[in-house]
Structure to design on (92 residues):
């Protein structure tokens, strides 16, 4: 719960939508678990579901458009179009 509240705070401080950001991070986590993204793609971040540190790191990267955050900042439709390989099926 702490990580979720902190992620909302980070979104608010950076002027980004919490729902869209959560959807983009969920897409990244699902893609990571299905092998479409690796730690090489995430600069070493383990994007497994349930990893609160990864959630906070991704919010910060999306806000700064840093690394994979630049892709995720585009939203789930554009990110899944670039990822391909069926990821559009779990893009919310």
């Amino acid at each position: 719960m702490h990580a979720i509240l902190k992620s909302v705070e980070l979104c608010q401080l950076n002027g980004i939508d919490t729902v869209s950001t959560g959807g983009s991070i969920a897409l990244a986590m699902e893609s990571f678990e299905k092998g479409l993204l690796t730690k090489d793609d995430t600069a070493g971040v383990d994007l497994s579901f349930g990893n609160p540190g990864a959630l906070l790191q991704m919010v910060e990267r999306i806000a700064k458009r840093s690394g994979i955050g630049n892709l995720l900042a585009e939203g789930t439709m554009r990110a899944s179009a670039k990822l391909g390989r069926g990821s559009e099926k779990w893009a919310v």
